[in-house]
Write a structure and sequence with these properties.
The complex is a heterodimer.
Chain A lengths: L1 H14 L1 H4 L4 E2 L9 H20 L9 H11 L3 H28 L8 H23 L4 H14 L4 H12 L4 H34 L14 E2 L1 H26 L10 H5 L10 H7 L9 H16 L1 H4 L11 H23 L7 H27 L11 E5 L6 H25 L6 H24 L1 E5 L6
Antiparallel strand pairs in A: 1-2, 3-4
Chain B lengths: L7 H22 L6 H23 L8 H19 L1
Classes of the chains: A mainly alpha, B mainly alpha.
Chain lengths: ~475, ~90
């Protein structure tokens, strides 16, 4: 320990790290969930370093973009590793941004006084997605160019001069060369600059407000650790494992370039975006949004973003615990479930137009299933969904299902039957004449399953005293 | 046997440090063009070993040392080394 102190003091006397750089951190913040944002910055650093190395070889012209990327992968020392690491660190950045957002949302970190941190964070997330969109085109593969063409083409559906102006801003005059040049400049100059400014703002606000307290509360608020060496070494430790994971993934699944974009190769290929835009892609494939209806989708998606952006200004209650925020937690769970469902669904149905009835059934069904689970969860833990009972009061509620494995198994069985028969009955209702018998049997099965599920839930009703032991 | 017991922490730290140095020297001689897989795996191993060293060195100063985390690190290290030689 003496040696440890000596090293720290030696470094600190020369660089003044404990006094000048970042504030001391509370002990509870030395938890990986508090460092998702920092890991995102680490991924951004890797992006910067590998991006600079790629720039040594990459030529941003229509003729050379693909050839220079392929040359780097096949002939440049560590070229394939650098390209793969650049791609995977971009994926990691998007994933970490999403996890960071979810953590902030479910832990109510966005509430007073951190509202603007949330707004800046969402803007940073959008910039990260823009990085993905612009970087995707640069290798000029059939996959990337086709998907980008679809995205840019959709801007033309925006009303008045908005669409044309946005299209000109992003893709230039319409030629391939101007599109590639603009995406390249956006990717290596405009977006990094925007992200750095937003990062500076967020870091400043973080230094002002500090790390939010955990939902379980803090036993000893006096336990503060200096940023250097404790927090710094903690970051080194997490970053080491994070970069190690990225390297392992890069070695196990190295990047292989799809064919070069030409009109001939594009003709035999169904455009599909990268995984992080699949949910948008799937929404755009709903038949209601086909053709001129795309304007509704182009209005709906920014509207969702505005609702998310403005969250801290309407979710202003003081309650932070999950057990005290049933509505917002359920909405959050539905949003995550819809996002996952749309992404998987989009991946599995490339190029297929989705009928509206099917879209409504899947979207509404997912929301319904998550809501039922959330309702059951809050009923078993806090007595009521809409107005959780006070700690210690006696309430009538459903016993935790895990205490009754047989009944739980039966409940799950009937739930599975209902999940199949209810949507199928609704679908058959559209043409009752041709499948009368099937419709009747499925309707009976649905009703029976729902009835038995309600009986099981009724048998599990117990009177107990509320213990808000949840975070 | 606890990590804080006399000698164990120093021994683990010294072993990790030796591994770090040995891998760093080896990496210096790896052919970048033909041995990208080895280079990537060993660089990953180097970083994971550094993380483990920091964990062993830092953890007792503010919290409880968790063997499970340390073992997970060891397994990951072994996986990366195996990736390098296969």
């Amino acid at each position: 320990m003496v040696q440890h102190r000596e090293i720290v003091d030696w470094v600190d006397n020369r660089l003044g790290l404990t006094a000048a750089v970042l504030k001391p951190v509370p002990e509870y913040s030395l938890d990986p969930l508090y460092w998702l944002g920092a890991l995102m910055v680490m991924a951004f650093l890797i992006q910067g370093i590998t991006g600079l190395l790629i720039l040594l070889y990459y030529v941003p012209t229509v003729d050379q973009a693909y050839v220079s990327t392929l040359f780097m992968i096949e002939h440049v020392p560590l070229g394939q590793l650098i390209q793969t690491l650049h791609l995977y660190s971009a994926y990691a950045m998007i994933l970490l941004a999403f996890m960071h957002l979810l953590r902030q949302y479910f832990a109510s970190v966005q509430k007073k006084p951190r509202e603007l941190m949330w707004v800046v964070g969402i803007l940073m997330g959008l910039v990260v997605l823009a990085f993905g969109l612009t970087g995707y085109l640069l290798p000029w593969t059939v996959v990337s160019k086709s998907a980008t063409d679809v995205a840019v083409g959709m801007l033309g559906f925006l009303p008045g001069q908005v669409g044309a102006s946005l299209r000109f801003l992003i893709a230039g005059s319409g030629s391939d060369a101007s599109e590639l040049t603009r995406f390249f400049v956006l990717h290596i100059v405009a977006l990094p600059a925007a992200l750095l400014v937003l990062l500076g703002l967020k870091m400043y606000m973080f230094e002002v407000h500090g790390a939010a307290e955990p939902l379980s509360g803090v036993k000893d608020k006096t336990r503060i650790l200096p940023w250097f060496p404790e927090a710094f070494l903690y970051l080194v430790m997490l970053s080491g494992v994070f970069v190690g994971l990225l390297l392992a993934a890069s070695v196990l699944f190295p990047l292989s370039l799809p064919p070069k974009f030409t009109p001939q190769t594009a003709a035999s290929y169904t455009p599909q975006p990268d995984w992080y835009f699949l949910w948008v892609y799937q929404i755009l494939k709903f038949s209601a949004f086909e053709g001129s209806g795309v304007i509704y989708a182009l209005t709906l998606i920014p509207l969702i973003l505005v609702v998310v952006l403005m969250l801290p200004f309407y979710d202003r209650g003081k309650a932070r615990r999950i057990s005290q925020r049933p509505t917002y937690v359920t909405i959050g769970m539905i949003a995550v479930a819809e996002l996952v469902v749309l992404t998987v669904w989009g991946y599995m149905t490339p190029g297929q137009v989705i009928p509206d009835s099917q879209a409504i059934m899947i979207i509404a069904g997912t929301a319904l299933i998550v809501s039922v689970f959330a309702w059951a969860f809050y009923r078993t833990r806090t007595g009521s969904f809409f107005k959780p009972a006070a700690n210690g009061s006696r309430v009538k509620s459903i016993a935790a299902l895990d205490r009754f494995p047989m009944l739980t198994a039966l409940f799950s069985l009937f739930l599975a039957v209902a999940c199949v028969t209810v949507p199928s009955s609704i679908r058959l209702l559209a043409s009752p004449g041709s499948h009368g018998l099937l419709l009747a049997s499925e309707s009976i099965l649905s009703a029976l399953s729902l009835y038995l599920m309600s009986r099981i839930l009724k048998s599990l009703v117990v009177i107990h005293s509320v213990e808000v032991g949840l975070p | 046997m606890k990590i804080d017991e006399t000698g164990i922490r120093s021994l683990v730290s010294a072993s990790l440090l030796s591994l770090l140095v040995a891998v760093a020297i080896y990496l210096w001689f790896v052919d970048f063009l033909t041995m990208q897989r080895e280079f990537g795996s060993l660089l990953g191993a180097e970083l994971v070993a550094l993380s483990m060293l920091v964990y062993v060195y830092l953890k007792p100063s503010y919290g409880k040392f968790r063997k499970a985390w340390f073992l997970a690190g060891c397994l990951f290290l072994i996986l990366l080394m195996l990736l390098a030689i296969t």
